[in-house]
């Protein structure tokens, strides 16, 4: 993750506030016993000593003020030394900024989850990724944009939907269209039944899968358009079969 850079002045002020609060607290504790005291009468011309037995009171001891100022100066010196010892901090300090910590950007683990899902499920689309990687839509879009900028994934638009593939998959648009169709659960059921020779007609598929004939017809029309399924008319029945050209691709992505 990239370090976050913030203006030097604002963070310096906050840092100073903490030190000021600490030293003012320390000042009041130390001066509680040092501000006033009474001395006994003593002979002589010594400065600050009672000469006729009167009471002498020291109004204020300013030693603690100097200690406080020295502490402030020391803290500034230490902060300057810290900057001088770190070349990166020194450069940004010259430019008026300070490195204060890690930037607040989505962590790499979330991006890795999105990338891993697209690699495992070529042809995945945003809503599908959102439902399976437990990230919100905004985060998924951000990671997809980042992965595209890094040339790790590619976008493929098909049927009004944008799908994503790993850049290392090495497949053309025809294969991407077939792979996208194989991601649909209903298509998977239909293809599986036909390949297993369980059902190969519209009526039989509807009965076996448990959906209407209209639903089967809608999916079969789409599968025929992309060339994944072929049909042969035998008498009154239309028999479906899988295009053998795509058997290897189906086995790889089913």
Q: Determine the N-to-C terminus distance.
A: 37 Å
> What's the rounded overall pLDDT mean?
78
Beta-strand share of residues? 15-25%
Give the count of helical stretches.
11
Shape summary: rod-shaped
User: How are strands sequenced across the largest beta sheet?
Assistant: 1-4
**Order of SSEs:** EHEEHHEHHHEEHHHHEEH
Radius of gyration: 39 Å
Helix coverage percent of residues? 40-55%
Number of strands: 8
Main sheet characteristics:
2 strands, antiparallel
Assembly state: single chain
| Low-pLDDT ranges | 6-13
SSE class:
alpha+beta
Please describe the structure with a list of short key phrases separated by commas or semicolons.
two-stranded antiparallel sheet, alpha+beta, 254 residues, two-stranded antiparallel ribbon
Describe this structure in words.
About 3% of the residues have low confidence. 14% of the residues are buried. The strands form 4 sheets. This protein has a two-stranded antiparallel ribbon. A two-stranded antiparallel ribbon has the order 2-3. Helix 1 packs antiparallel against helix 2 and helix 2 crosses helix 3. The protein contains 11 helices and 8 strands. With 254 residues, it is an alpha+beta fold. The chain is 54% helix and 15% strand. Strand 7 and strand 8 form a beta hairpin.
